[in-house]
Request: fold
Amino acid sequence: GMLAIERLLEHPCADYLAIISAGYPGPEGADAIAAALFGLYSPGGKLSNTWYPSKYISEVSMTSMSFTEFPGRTYKYYQGVPTFTFGY
Reply:
């Protein structure tokens, strides 16, 4: 989750060089992830969503679906500093 990602970003280490976000990879996902981990494939891509900081869940009401109400939702309206931006 975001807490783990934020810790990695705050305390960089040479033991890891990348973050793999697989979401729901489908029936071939395990093979694709294994190929990336073992160096058989070098994935590249962009984030299809904004990764908010962990404090985001305490800043926004989960029952409010307003995009523009502070702190905002989606890359267009979020007014804070995202952990990773849409398209990163």
Q: What stands out?
A: The CA atoms of residues 70 and 79 lie 7 Å apart. The chain has a mean pLDDT of 83. The helical segments are 2-10, 29-37, 56-59, 74-77. The chain is about 30% helix and 0% strand.
